[in-house]
Recover the amino acids of this structure.
């Protein structure tokens, strides 16, 4: 799967998945090799309206990326408003 296909898949799924679920999908699409840099890069490409500082903060805190103690609910609260505002 190409980077463009991954970005398209994230965009197509964002209306039905939470931010944490999108992160899980991204991890799956990358073969279980998701890290903070990839999370930031793919989310920024898929959702350019999310401020970079918000993505960096999210990646630094979200537990599955090994950066901190942030839960899925916290990630959803942080990124949810940006994803909801983009839903048609």
């Amino acid at each position: 799967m190409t980077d463009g296909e991954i970005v398209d898949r994230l965009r197509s799924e964002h209306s039905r998945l939470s931010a944490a679920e999108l992160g899980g999908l991204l991890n799956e699409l990358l073969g279980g090799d998701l890290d903070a840099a990839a999370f930031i890069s793919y989310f920024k490409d898929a959702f350019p309206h999310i401020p970079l500082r918000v993505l960096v903060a999210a990646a630094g805190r979200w537990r599955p990326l090994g950066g901190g103690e942030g839960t899925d609910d916290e990630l959803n609260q942080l990124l949810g408003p940006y994803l909801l505002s983009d839903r048609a």
Observations:
- The chain has five helices and no strands.
- Helices lie at 3-13, 19-29, 36-46, 52-61, 72-84.
- Residues 3-84 form one domain.
- The chain has one domain: 3-84.
